[in-house]
């Protein structure tokens, strides 16, 4: 149980385009999901907390107009990186909060912006 | 600023030995503690959770929590080369919903 999927697993795009990443909890309902970014050899950096049916809460320094988050259902949250630039290239990982407040991570999406 | 501190390592142990990973946290009201394993290029995988003082054992893994000392550790018995990974300590406080992660300790188990 407690499986979280992400799609796509890898994406390469041109600078200036937008990229949408989906995060799904497959066998449980998640009222809260989290989006992280991880640069090489660095730890996870929380970008935002996504709550079903309400606006996401962004961490300090994360541009909410650039990283659009939508949590439309109890099993799906999406992150859209708008007008992506090379510095946005990173490993984006979502997680879903379980019954005992543990977090289960998706497999991650590796974004490369050319 | 809530912080979770881990020695970045690398921690090197021979196969079959006990690996001991340590973590300290700054927020005294922290309630839940988690250990995640992350292989290179992969996302973190939950190994253990611990909520009360003392030891919690699951197979080869034992988590130890001491809230008075604000210290949580993970012991891996009979370490295997497949245990080589980065181990992330994560802490959740009473009020927050997000986990606060340490930077991780890299473990290398040699055969």
Structural summary, described in words:
The complex is a heterodimer of chains A (114) and B (111). Chain A has 114 residues and is mainly beta. Chain A has strands at 4-7, 10-13, 19-25, 32-38, 45-51, 57-58, 67-73, 76-81, 90-97, 103-105, 109-113. In chain A, 0% of the residues lie in helices and 53% in strands. The mean pLDDT of chain A is 92. Chain B has strands at residues 4-5, 11-14, 19-25, 30-38, 45-50, 54-58, 61-66, 71-76, 85-93, 100-101, 105-110. In chain B, a hairpin with a 6-residue loop joins strand 9 (85-93) and strand 10. In chain B, strands 2, 4, 5, 9, 10 and 11 form a 6-stranded mixed β-sheet that branches. In chain B, strands 1-3-8-7-6 form a 5-stranded antiparallel β-sheet, with no helix packed on it. Classes of the chains: A mainly beta (114), B mainly beta (111). The A-B interface holds A 32, 34, 42-44, 46, 49, 91, 93, 97, 100-108 and B 32, 34, 36, 41-46, 49, 88, 90, 92, 97-99, 101-104.
Question: In a nutshell, what does this entry contain?
Answer:
The complex is a heterodimer of chains A (114) and B (111). Chain A is mainly beta and 114 residues long.
Helical residue percent band of chain A: under 10%
Helix content of chain B: under 10%
The biggest sheet of chain A, with number of strands, parallel, antiparallel or mixed sense and barrel status, is: 7 strands, mixed
Number of strands of chain A: 11
Mean pLDDT of chain B: 92
Written as H for each helix and E for each strand, in order along the chain, the element string of chain B is EEEEEEEEEEE
Which regions of chain B are unreliable across 5 or more consecutive residues at pLDDT < 50? none
The gyration radius over C-alpha positions of chain A equals 13 Å
What is the first-to-last residue Cα distance of chain A? 37 Å
Helix segment count of chain A? 0
Q: Look at the helices and sheets of chain B and give the structural class.
A: mainly beta
What is the residue-mean pLDDT of chain A, rounded to a whole number? 92
Beta fraction of the residues of chain B? over 45%
